[in-house]
Every structure is written in C-alpha cells, then in structure tokens.
C-alpha cells in the first residue's frame, strides 16, 4: 500500500499492466471531476472511451488477449495522455488502482512497435455516412477504439464488427438512426456505461450487449441549464448525476440522485432513478417535466407535444421485459428540490433487520425525512472505508463486536430529526459519522482489541457505544483526522488525499448522500450484482421472507453476499430492495454462479408475488410509477413459471 | 436460391410447413394468425408484410404483400421490425424471443400472449430458416 513517487513511476511490465487493468470495473468515475483534481484532458477533448483512463485499461487487456491489433489510432491514443495524474487520484479514491501505470506501459509498448505492425484501417461506406452526419472526427471503425467499449456495451468475445459515433445534438441522433435503419444495421445508445458495467460481463450478455452495429456514444450531448425560478434543469444525455448535482447546489437545489457517474437521462430511462430520496422526491416519471426522445425510426418527439400518444403507460405483468431502451432520451427537463438550511443526518443503529425495516416503513408512511433507507453493515463498511482491506476489517468489527448490522439513515430537517430521536433510544449523528470516516483506518485496527472485547460483552453493545460512556472512548480511539486517513493511500498521493479529506463535504453525510461518490467503492477491484426490486410493504413477513430468499441463494451457491439497502417508495406503500453479490469478474466459474442466482432469485420472486423485480424495472423509467407498480403483482402460476424459464432461456441460451 | 419474401419463398415455405412439420408435435396445435411487417427492405427502403395463419397447428395461409398493412384479413398479432432483424432471425443469429426483448421486433397486442406463441412459432421459424438462403443487402 505504500510506495514513493519513484516506485510509482518505475516501469510496469505489460503483464502487470494487464493485471491492473483486469481489476478495473468500468465504474466511470474517471470521466468527471468529483475530487476537484481535474479530469482527463485527453478524454474530454477526444470523447471516445479509448481516450479515457478506463478505455486505455480495456485496450491493454484487448491487445494482450490478441483480440485487437495495433492501429494508427493507437499512437494517437497514447500520445494524447500527458500523464497529468488525474486518473490515479480519482481511481485510487474509489478502487485503489493506478491507471497511469497502465497508460505509461501502453505508451512504452507502442513506442517499441515497428511501423509495419500498425494495422491500417480503411474507411468504409458506413463510417463515411456516419461522418457526414457528425463530422470527420466523431465517427470511427477503428478496432482499437471499438475494443475500448468492451465490458460495458460490447460483449467480450464478439468480433469487432462495430462503429462508434458521437453525435452532438438530437438532430444528429435522429439522422444516425435513420441511416442505421436504411442500412439495416442495429444500434444501441451508450451513456456512462455504468449500468452495463455491472451486468454485461456476467449475465444477460446476449440481451444487454450489442452483437454488431453502431454504438451511439452520447457523451457530447453536454447541455446543462439550471432554471432556479421553476426548480428545474435542462439536462443533455451526456451529463452525469454529479455534474447536475454540482450545478444545482449553486442555486441551493438538489436533483433526485443516482450514483455519481450515472448519466441523468439514461438513468431516468433505465430504472427511473432508484434513490434513497425517492419516497419524497418521487420515482419513474415523477422525475421529469419533459423529455426529448428519438424513436426507432429517428422521429424526434417531446412528451409535451400535444399530438403525442400517452407516453406514460406500460403493460403490467412479468413478461413486460425490455432489455434495451425503446427510445433514446437526448434531453430531459428534470425536477429539482429545495435544499433547507437545517438539513441533518440521523442514523439509527440496529442489530436486526426486522426492527430496522419497521422503523423505515413507519417513517416512509408518515413522510418523515427527505432521504430514507436501511443500509446494511456491508454498505457502511464499503462506503466509509478508504481501502478494501479496511472495509473488510470495518465489517468484521461491526459484526462481531458491536452488532452494528443495519442503520436506518434519515436525511431530514430539524423537526423530523426530533421526531426520529423521540421514536428510538439512541442514534448516530453527523459528528460521530465524521469521526468514523476520518477514523476508519483506526476503527478497523480495533479488531481483536481489548476495547472491543469488553464492548462485545455488554448486553447491548450498540447502546453501550452510541448512548453510553463508551462513545467518548471510541471517538478518542479513532483519532480521526484527514492526515490519518491519507496515510493509507500510496505515499505520493497522501498530500492530495489529506486535502481531499479536509474538505467539509467529504465528511458531510448529507452531501455524500446527494452526490453519491462513495457507492462505487463496492466495485473496487471486484464486481457486484444487485438483484432485487420493489415489493409491496403491506405484509412485513412476506417482505422479510423475500430478503431471506436472496440470502439463502448466496449461501447455497457460496458467493459473498449481503443486503444492500431498502428504501421506501410512494409514501411507504412499496420499498425498493437491493441485495448484493460480490465476486471476481475475471472468474468465469463464479460468474456462472452469479447468473444462476440472478435467474433463480427472479423466478422465486415472481412466484412469491407482490414484487416488481429488477428485470421488470429495466427501461420502465419514463412511465408513471402508478402504471409500473400497480396493479400489485400476484404470484405467477406454474404455467407462467414455465413461460418465464423459456423466456430467459431465449436470452441466456447456454448461460442458463 | 430462395429469396426472402419472394413468390417462390411462399410456395416452398408452404410446402415445407405442410410436409415437414407435425401440427401437434412441432406446432403444438396452435390456432393463431400473425402479420409480420418488414421495414427498410433494400435497395429502395420499402416495406412489405407477410400474413401467416395456423389452425390447430395446420397451415391455413401464408401470404406476402407490399406495404405495412394487410386489409383482407385481421391478424391476431402484429410484429414489426427491420429487414435486418428478420434476416438475423432467419440466419439463426438471433432468436425471435430475444428480438422481442431487445425491441428489435415490436409486438402489437398482449406481450404475454405473444410470448406464449414463441415456442410453437419456433417450428415455423426453423422451416423458414431451412428454405431461405438469399437476402438483399
């Protein structure tokens, strides 16, 4: 974990670079400036994924595997990187990887190639046609650039029979679709690629990936305007949640937030923005005032057009599956919400899920709080810990000594905070959370300490630590400070991280909930798959049995697993639950097991009933929640269960 | 060489379904009708459609027309997609089910009922796959 500048800059072998690249999980955090460190200049200028750190990492893998040969564009790709170090800072914060080492190795590799080894790529009629639409530099059939899209939208084993095109506006998107249709070429839009990064390499590859054709990369649709008077924002398809949230904050406004790297428009389309703020701010079509869409014939429409057919309804039932978006949303006018001066966080710790769930639903039904969620111990450990090792020890301490298994997290105003505090015996406040963030390395070292042993012997360790005299001892033992957190990072980055952790927002739980820069830590050097869905909350036993089913499947197939979060929807009448399975995405055997879990869990969920599974959620985000969630789904029949298996059989084929 | 949507294609297709497919075993005794609309047919970017009707698993009609509607008979289901999508299905590169799930084929009518037909219709697809070996590019 410690290395000095010299070590960082020393040559990395190509094989080692491949190993680093393989640990990359395409989280997309290198594509926007979430640490104030700047963002990859080459990526911003050139756009194509190949010019971004995550793309370079993928190219190294693809060259090593022999799937792609060097092209003249590869020289441009390596030359465009000036080793500014932005990517190392960003990637190290979330995954502890060093993409710059990979970029340096790639440059060295290219430098040593003979000119005869560079493949010349000829322009064909399709790329010529696309260039006529978007301009010379924004369409390509270069195999190296294409290969950088593997793992997020292109399957790993396909031939590189693709084109990448980067339109600048809605009209160009429309023309591209018309051109694709005329030439009978399939296409698929790509935004941040964050949804596919979790799913595509492991399950539903045939369904979610593009088998050949045109990737429409929407990065260049960068329009972003805040309208404070109407509490709305106009957002182009290239804008990330973080970028929107940052601009909205300047006007004391907030958007319903998904993870930081997700693009706003695509997140609306994909799942209707699943967020802990959903009970108050809404879900599905609640999120927007208007959408600009391009349909599969290239026709541009707006939801506000008078002649448009009802765009908000969708067919109910479990067969209403869609693995690609019906339309491309190029622009959205989204709702923003006021930020109050007295917003605070209050967390209620629990050792058992039932009590946490009860409190959550009670708060949801009473509309208390702006953001509401049960977060698992695993989530807390992953989010708060700066490294994977610390997160594992953090989790161990919480589980084995203090029995901190769940927290109900509430972001609220001072009046709601008082209500929550009156409802429970003890809480965790902002001050203690700040100590846990800045003291996470020390907290993890308390494993097997006398302090923890004494604490674990208490009848109620949670009460002892959060409501008793032990709290002061804990805070002292944590020795929280930006310096102490920074020490766990590579030596040459420690000064930078000391500054990062000195920023007030880095320990402000309200800010962290809204900007969601921490969840990507779940993908540090590994992958997770989070099936689940929204279930009716009218039957507590049914809900808890549903969660247990996911846990049992994880045990049965021997995969690391944990509840992720539960958050209420529609005034607590439903609650969305994500259950996470963690795994090495480079191990095909464990990927097969994850596939099986996802299919089995979906099937069992449908049999249980009262649930809208994550697969049924996909690409329903533009519809009204009333049409998606209602009528409440009944459990499917034996005949329907067989149909479900056949349906997924067609998607997964031999993977099933 | 039998070209997709040609007169010859209809004749050979009809014969193949009648001669080679068992109404009970292969076509599950289904009674249904389907209008397949094929858009963006090269080289002139035209639209054609084919009407397929089965009764108790026996072929009743297979008719090809130009345009996107078939006025003479009302089909229970309509599927609509690009020429390239139909080509991928008939070349065995993509299943009917995945084409529907990926929105490459749009279904008019109940998706649940339409998807229930996928398995029996697989027999017809296999038949058409066997006889079609020429496409327009």
Instruction: Quote the distance from N terminus to C terminus of chain A.
Output: 40 Å
Q: CATH first level of chain B: which class? A: Alpha Beta
Order of helices and strands of chain B: HEEEEHHEHH
Question: How many DSSP H or I helices of chain A?
Answer: 32
Describe the biggest sheet of chain B? 5 strands, mixed
Number of strands of chain B: 5
How far apart are the termini of chain B? 15 Å
Query: Average pLDDT value of chain A?
Result: 93
Low-confidence stretches of chain B: none
Oligomerization: heterodimer
Question: Any idea what the CATH superfamily of chain B is called?
Answer: SCP2 sterol-binding domain
Q: Helicity range of the residues of chain B?
A: 25-40%
Radius of gyration of chain B: 14 Å
Explain this structure to me?
The complex is a heterodimer of chains A (656) and B (137). Chain A has 656 residues and is of the alpha+beta class. Among the domains of chain A are: 113 residues, Fumarate Reductase Iron-sulfur Protein, Chain B, domain 2, CATH 1.10.1060; 181 residues. In chain A, the strands form three sheets. In chain A, strands 11, 12, 13, 14, 15, 16, 17, 18 and 19 form a nine-stranded antiparallel sheet that branches. In chain A, strands 5, 6, 7, 8, 9 and 10 form a six-stranded antiparallel sheet that branches. In chain A, strand 17 and strand 18 form a beta hairpin. In chain A, helix 8 runs antiparallel to helix 10. The longest helix of chain A is centred in the C-terminal third of the chain and has 21 residues. The N terminus of chain A is likely disordered. Chain B has a single domain, classed as Nonspecific Lipid-transfer Protein, Chain A (2-Layer Sandwich). Helix content of chain B is 35%, strand content 28%. Chain B is α+β, with helices and mostly antiparallel strands and 137 residues long. In chain B, a hairpin with a 4-residue loop joins strand 1 and strand 2. The mean pLDDT of chain B is 88. Chain B is built from five helices and five strands, in the order αββββααβαα. Chains A and B meet through helix 32 of A and helix 2, helix 3 and helix 4 of B.
């Amino acid at each position: 974990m410690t290395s000095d500048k010299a070590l960082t800059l020393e040559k990395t072998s190509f094989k080692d670079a491949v190993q680093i690249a393989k640990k990359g999980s395409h989280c997309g955090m290198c594509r926007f400036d979430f640490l104030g460190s700047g963002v990859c200049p080459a990526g911003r200028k050139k756009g194509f994924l190949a010019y971004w750190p995550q793309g370079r990492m993928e190219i190294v893998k693809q060259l090593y595997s022999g799937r792609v040969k060097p092209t003249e564009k590869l020289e441009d790709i390596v030359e465009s990187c000036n080793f500014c170090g932005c990517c190392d800072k960003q990637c190290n914060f979330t995954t502890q990887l060093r993409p710059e080492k990979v970029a340096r190795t790639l440059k060295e590799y290219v430098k040593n190639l003979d000119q005869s080894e560079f493949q010349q790529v000829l322009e064909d009629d399709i790329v010529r046609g696309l260039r006529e639409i978007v301009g010379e530099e924004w369409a390509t059939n270069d195999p190296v650039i294409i290969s950088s899209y593997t793992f997020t939208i292109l399957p790993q084993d396909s031939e590189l029979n693709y084109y990448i095109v980067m339109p600048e506006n809605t009209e160009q998107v429309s023309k591209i679709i018309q051109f694709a249709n005329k030439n009978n070429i399939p296409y698929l839009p790509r935004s941040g690629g964050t949804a596919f990064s979790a799913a595509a390499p492991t399950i539903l590859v045939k369904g979610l990936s593009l088998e050949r054709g045109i990737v429409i990369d929407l990065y260049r649709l960068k329009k972003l305007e805040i309208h404070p008077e109407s509490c709305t924002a106009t957002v182009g398809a290239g804008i990330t949640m973080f970028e929107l949230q940052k601009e909205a904050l300047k006007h004391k406004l907030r958007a319903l937030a998904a993870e930081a790297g997700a693009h706003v428009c695509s997140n609306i389309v994909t799942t209707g923005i699943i967020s802990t703020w959903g009970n108050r701010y809404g879900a599905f079509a609640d999120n927007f005032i208007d959408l600009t869409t391009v349909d599969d014939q290239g026709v541009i429409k707006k939801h506000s057009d008078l002649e448009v057919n009802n765009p908000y309804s969708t067919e109910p039932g479990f067969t209403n599956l869609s693995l690609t978006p019906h339309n491309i949303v190029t622009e959205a006018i989204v709702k923003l919400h006021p930020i109050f001066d007295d917003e605070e966080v209050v967390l209620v710790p629990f050792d058992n899920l039932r009590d946490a769930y009860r409190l959550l639903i009670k708060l949801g039904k009473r509309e208390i709080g702006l953001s509401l969620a049960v977060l698992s111990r695993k989530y807390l450990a992953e989010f708060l810990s700066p490294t994977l090792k610390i997160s594992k020890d953090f989790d161990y301490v919480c589980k084995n000594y203090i029995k901190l298994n769940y927290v109900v997290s509430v972001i609220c105003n001072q009046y709601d905070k008082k209500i929550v505090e009156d409802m429970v015996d003890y809480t965790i406040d902002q001050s203690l959370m700040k100590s846990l963030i800045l003291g996470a390395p020390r907290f993890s070292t308390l494993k097997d300490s006398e302090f923890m042993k004494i604490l674990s012997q208490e009848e109620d360790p949670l009460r002892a630590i959060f409501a008793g005299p032990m709290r002061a001892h804990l805070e002292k033992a944590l020795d929280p400070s930006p310096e102490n957190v920074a020490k766990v990072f590579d030596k040459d980055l420690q000064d930078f991280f000391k500054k990062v952790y000195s920023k007030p927002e880095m320990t402000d739980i309200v800010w962290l909930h809204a900007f969601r820069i921490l969840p990507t830590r779940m993908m540090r050097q590994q992958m997770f798959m989070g099936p689940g869905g929204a279930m009716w909350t009218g039957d507590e036993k049914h809900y808890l049995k549903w969660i247990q089913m996911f846990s049992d499947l994880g045990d049965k197939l021997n995969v690391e697993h944990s509840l992720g979060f539960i958050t209420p929807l529609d005034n607590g009448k439903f609650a969305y639950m994500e259950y996470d399975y963690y795994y090495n995405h480079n191990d095909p055997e464990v990927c097969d097991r994850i596939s099986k879990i996802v299919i089995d869990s979906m099937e069992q969920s449908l049999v249980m009933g009262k649930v809208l599974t994550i697969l049924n959620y996909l690409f329903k985000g533009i519809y009204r929640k009333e049409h998606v969630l209602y009528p409440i789904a009944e459990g499917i029949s034996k005949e329907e269960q067989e149909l479900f298996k056949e349906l997924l059989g067609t998607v997964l084929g031999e993977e099933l | 060489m039998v070209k997709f949507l040609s007169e010859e294609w209809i004749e050979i297709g009809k014969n193949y379904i009648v001669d080679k497919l068992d109404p009970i075993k292969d076509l599950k005794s289904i009674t249904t009708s389907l209008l397949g609309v094929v858009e963006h047919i090269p080289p002139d970017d035209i639209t054609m459609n084919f009407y397929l009707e089965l009764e108790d698993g026996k072929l009743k009609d297979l008719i090809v027309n130009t345009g996107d509607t078939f006025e003479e008979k009302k089909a229970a289901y309509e599927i609509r997609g690009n020429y390239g999508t139909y080509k991928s299905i008939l070349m065995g590169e993509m299943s009917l089910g995945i084409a529907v799930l990926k929105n490459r084929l749009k279904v008019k009518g109940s998706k649940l009922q339409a998807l229930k037909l996928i398995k029996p219709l697989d027999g017809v697809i296999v038949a058409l796959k066997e006889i079609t070996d020429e496409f327009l590019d």
